[in-house]
Amino acid sequence: MLQGKLITLDEFTIQETRKFPQATGELSSLLRDIALAGKVINNKVRTAGLSDVLGKQGSSNIQGEQQEKLDVIADETLIHVLKNSADCAGIASEENDDHVSYEDTFSANSKYVVLFDPLDGSSNIDVNASIGTIFSIYRRVSELGKTCTEADFLQPGNKLMAAGYIIYGSSTMMVYATKLSVNGFTLDPSIGEFCLSHPNIKVPENGKIYSLNQGNTNKYSEGMKAYLNYCMESNKEEGRPYSHRYIGSMVGDLHRTLIKGGIFIYPADKSSPNGKLRLQYECNPMSFIVEAAGGLGHTGEERVMDVVPTELHQRVPIYIGSKNMVNKALEIIKEKEVVG
Ligand code: AHG
Ligand code: MN
Ligand code: MN
């Protein structure tokens, strides 16, 4: 609620659309459909312990990871809702081998495609910690009127129209970013609407929290180990040692980073030369959101959003969050590489 006035996600996006006379409202309507899928998934998550949706599905996804039942439910919900949407030509999901082109005439004439990680942080499902849904929206590059193609889904992050996530945390929130701004909407369960609660989110330039899987330290490069030592070293003026926080759910860890500042890292290591997180479903949308809020998303080599994807499920290392913290991490790591 802003100054006693409730603004729903719908009202907000319609107001935003009015600022652009050429806008057709298709993006707002697509967002409404994604929000609907989010509400359906939220319902399943909120009552997970009471219905038979906890635990493993008994199948693996394209990445060879064990699927949780809720991974599959969330995936199917998004595919179904977006198929019925008038504004989505097709989807690609972390849980499926290939993209799905919707074949009907309506969809063939839609100008957007959506990519998603239906449920991020799956390992947290059974322990009732924050999980989320991450989504990205691209304008398709294939011919309008025909079914969409893989090229629509292999666009770099710098071509994103919009991205966001829904976090199923102590409350349920949708954080939605366009190039212009990042805004947070809290789900009011009494009216079933996402309402503006965090207008114009800006990630602080500096932070005091580092977030990574510290159990992997032995597998890290010398540069990464040097940065870890920097985070743990005492320096009163700079507020170090920093605090370490790691939920193990990118959505949860980055939501905190967005609000409080900090750095989140999933680096390359000895057993995963490209890191673990997926460029198209996790790193690009999160970089788009964080950069629209004034932060930075980097692979160690280049901006995440400048990587030209060659495969739907490709992985990249990621350093993301408060701009000054990310730049400092990259500087320390580079220094060590030059010396070592
Ligand atoms: P997902 O549940 O979609 O497979 O993603 C899990 C990801 C991400 O959310 C998190 O940051 C990371 O895996 C945690 O990995 P580790 O357990 O290796 O730290
Ligand atoms: Mn994920
Ligand atoms: Mn997932």
How would you describe this structure to a colleague?
The protein is of the alpha+beta class. The chain has two domains: 9-198, Fructose-1,6-Bisphosphatase, subunit A, domain 1 (Fructose-1,6-Bisphosphatase, Chain A, domain 1, 2-Layer Sandwich); 209-339, D-Maltodextrin-Binding Protein, domain 2. Helix content is 32%, strand content 23%. The termini are far apart. 47% of the residues are buried. The model has no long low-confidence stretch (mean pLDDT 95). It binds 2,5-anhydro-1,6-di-O-phosphono-D-glucitol and manganese (II) ion (2 copies). 2,5-anhydro-1,6-di-O-phosphono-D-glucitol is lined by residues 65, 94, 117, 120-122, 213, 248-250, 276.
What is the name of the CATH topology of the largest domain? Fructose-1,6-Bisphosphatase, Chain A, domain 1
Q: Identify the CATH class of the largest domain.
A: Alpha Beta
Helix content: 25-40%
Main β-sheet, spatial strand arrangement = 4-3-5-6-7-8-9-10
Tell me which ligands are bound: 2,5-anhydro-1,6-di-O-phosphono-D-glucitol, manganese (II) ion
Tally of individual domains: 2
CATH superfamily of the largest domain: Fructose-1,6-Bisphosphatase, subunit A, domain 1
Poorly predicted regions are none
Provide the succession of SSEs: HHEEHEEHEEHEEEEEHEHEHEEH
How is the topology of this model organized?
Elements: H1 9-18, H2 26-46, E1 56-60, E2 66-68, H3 69-84, E3 90-93, E4 100-101, H4 105-108, E5 112-120, E6 131-139, H5 150-153, E7 160-168, E8 172-178, E9 182-188, E10 193-198, E11 209-211, H6 222-232, E12 243-244, H7 250-260, E13 263-266, H8 279-292, E14 296-298, E15 318-321, H9 323-339
Parallel strand pairs: 3-5, 11-12, 11-13
Antiparallel strand pairs: 1-2, 3-4, 5-6, 6-7, 7-8, 8-9, 9-10, 13-15, 14-15
The chain binds 2,5-anhydro-1,6-di-O-phosphono-D-glucitol and manganese (II) ion (2 copies).
The site of one manganese (II) ion has 4 residues, from strand 5.
